[in-house]
UniProtKB/TrEMBL annotation:
Encoding gene per record: cdd
Catalysed conversion reaction: 2'-deoxycytidine + H2O + H(+) = 2'-deoxyuridine + NH4(+); cytidine + H2O + H(+) = uridine + NH4(+)
Amino acids binding substrate: 41-47
Domain CMP/dCMP-type deaminase: residue ranges: 1-125
UniProt-recorded Gene Ontology molecular function terms: cytidine deaminase activity; identical protein binding; zinc ion binding
Matching Gene3D superfamilies: Cytidine Deaminase, domain 2
GO terms under cellular component: cytosol
Binding-site list for Zn(2+): 52, 85, 88
Main function: This enzyme scavenges exogenous and endogenous cytidine and 2'-deoxycytidine for UMP synthesis.
Matching PROSITE patterns: CYT_DCMP_DEAMINASES_1 (PS00903), CYT_DCMP_DEAMINASES_2 (PS51747)
Protein's name according to its UniProt entry: Cytidine deaminase
Amino acid sequence: MDLILFEAAKAARKNAYVPYSHFAVGAAVRAKDGRVFTGCNIENASYGLTVCAERNAIFAAVKEGVRDFETLLVTADTEGPVSPCGACRQVMAEFGISHIELTNLKGLSQCVSLEELLPYGFTLKEKE
Ligand code: THU
């Protein structure tokens, strides 16, 4: 368990805006340069506009010019480690986030690779 990312994700989770699902999620991602960026889920009355914690963390980094990442950690108040949705997996693939740590608030954790989370994922990389 990466305790720095875990604490950062738990702190971000406190700002989750979840009036509809009441399911708060926090995420923290470490860039290759060592900086840590965080995100929480932000919901909307137009439900489809909701953005997950993982994507908000990644986008917070990208808008600062960061594109090289080490590890992303996600946490929520779940029985077992929480697992990212498909849209977030696709965004992780876009930025080559290959190490992902799934956790819950109790401290259970499971490290997985992007390959495990998104086998046969869509990419245009080979066309560049
Ligand atoms: N959610 C996340 O933020 N990350 C996940 O990995 C799973 C789902 C959010 C979206 C929505 O606000 C709430 O959890 C319930 O789906």
